[in-house]
Amino acid sequence: MINLIKQTNNNKVIFVKKISDLKKSKDLQTKKLCIIKTDFTDLHGLKAIRQKYPELEIWLCSNEISRKNILVANSFGIKNVIPYPFDMKIINEFFKNKTEEEPPACVLENQSWLTGQKIMIVDDNPMNVELLAETLSGSGMKISTFLKPLDAGIAAGKEKFDLFLLDIMMPDMSGFELAKIIKDSELNEDTPIMFISALSDSENKITGYNIGSCAYIEKPFDINVVRSQIINTLKTKQLQNAMNHKKESFIAMVTHDLKAPVKAEIAALEMLAQNYMHSANEFEKEIVGDLLGASKYMKNLLDNVLNKYSFDNNEIMLNKEKYVLDNLIIESVEETKYLMKEKGLKFDYVNKTRKSSAAIDYLEIKRVVHNLLMNAIEYSPKNSEITIELSENKKYFVFSVKNRSKGIPLGNPDDIFNKFVSYANKHKKVGSGLGLYIAKRIIDAHNGTIHIDTKQKDYIRFVFTLPK
């Protein structure tokens, strides 16, 4: 076979019977193709050769080719495994298609935007993990590798990543189960997932795509193709994030511009409401009250959108001072009285505290109380009662709002605090799904807790706590 290669008069190809023979070669840097005969037990020296001669194409040839051996070769970055003895036509074809002008496969070092991108690789086979990590090295990306999917699941719940590369067949937990954990996490629910697996049947592929993966790559894989898929997935995600940021910025800008005229409208309607306070014309008085209530509802929506934008971009800064919670609650009830009156609602407020002074951001906590009251008003049946209570224990003040309701159509009621989750459609109402999301973010920022209690039939009760 060596003589046959020499007869081709091609000085850019070399054939060796074992990897250790390459150490004797003095002109390996001048070669384009290296063919190594192997029984797949001596591949550990390949890594050093590939690192020293990155431009050298390496093929393995053997008379013991099996799927298992191909996977082993692939784990060392070898994409071509051919039978021995081999046909010289494949060598001629290789050099026919290989030209000096051929562009490099994908130069990660020139992709400056990749710097800082966080990639998680999870595979119980250390060689596969090492191969993928090595492929992405030099890009500026931050690579986290895990051999145990349980550890990877814990990390995904604590840190935001830009891409997950998951094997499927792993002990303790499959890649599919790990993907579900990732999708259920708050930090990585929108992070792209790519499955890389030796399972090639359509059922597993469909399962992967149904979970939400952006790609399903079969082993053995071409490392250059996988690298390109990774880069293009990250590029697509970055473009989506940029578009979403522009959209959010535009919405925030428009919302901010609307606040001024809405405030002016509320001020004017409040003056009219004062003038009609002692008027005998109940019809006109009712119209002014309805308009004032609608304007305050609109202002609340605008405030929620702006607060959502601020929280999502970590721009919210709490300004804590000592305030009396009892006064704050009374003010909030007063500001929503027109909406209560429109539906014939009654409210019962009980203050069970001795002193309700707490270090809070007054405007933000008032926003929480206002959002909870607006929610109770919106979903209470006409002519029913809303019960408001302020109590205390050793460490916390406890605020609650209870109203009649048909219930919440969610498996976990506390999911109502997630962004854009609303049960307005269920009750044929208009709702943005932001009020309760904003409330939770504000309470969390105050080191308090908020939850919903649906234990009492036909009632729902929102409860939040604030440290004393």
Note the topology.
Layout: H1 2-7, E1 13-16, E2 33-37, H2 46-52, E3 57-62, H3 67-75, E4 80-83, H4 88-97, E5 118-122, H5 126-136, E6 142-146, H6 149-156, E7 163-166, H7 175-184, E8 193-197, H8 202-211, E9 215-218, H9 223-275, H10 282-312, E10 321-324, H11 325-335, H12 337-342, E11 346-351, E12 357-360, H13 362-379, E13 385-392, E14 396-404, H14 435-445, E15 449-453, E16 459-467
Parallel strand pairs: 1-2, 2-3, 3-4, 5-6, 5-7, 7-8, 8-9, 11-13
Antiparallel strand pairs: 10-12, 13-14, 14-16, 15-16
Helix pairs in contact: 6-7, 9-10, 10-14, 11-13, 13-14
Labels describing this entry:
five-stranded mixed beta sheet; 43% helix; five-stranded parallel beta sheet; 19% strand; phosphoprotein; 468 residues; Hybrid sensor histidine kinase/response regulator; HisK_dim/P_sf; alpha/beta
Largest sheet: number of strands, sense, barrel closure: 5 strands, parallel
Amount of helix: 40-55%
Terminus-to-terminus distance:
85 Å
Could you tell me the number of beta strands?
16
Tell me which oligomeric state these chains represent: single chain
What string, H for helix and E for strand, traces the elements in order? HEEHEHEHEHEHEHEHEHHEHHEEHEEHEE
Q: What spatial order of strands do you see in the largest sheet?
A: 6-5-7-8-9
The assigned structural class equals alpha/beta
Mean pLDDT: 81
Instruction: List the total number of helices.
Output: 14
- How much of the sequence lies in strands comes to 15-25%
Low-confidence stretches: 100-110, 422-432
Whole-number radius of gyration?
A: 33 Å
Shape: elongated
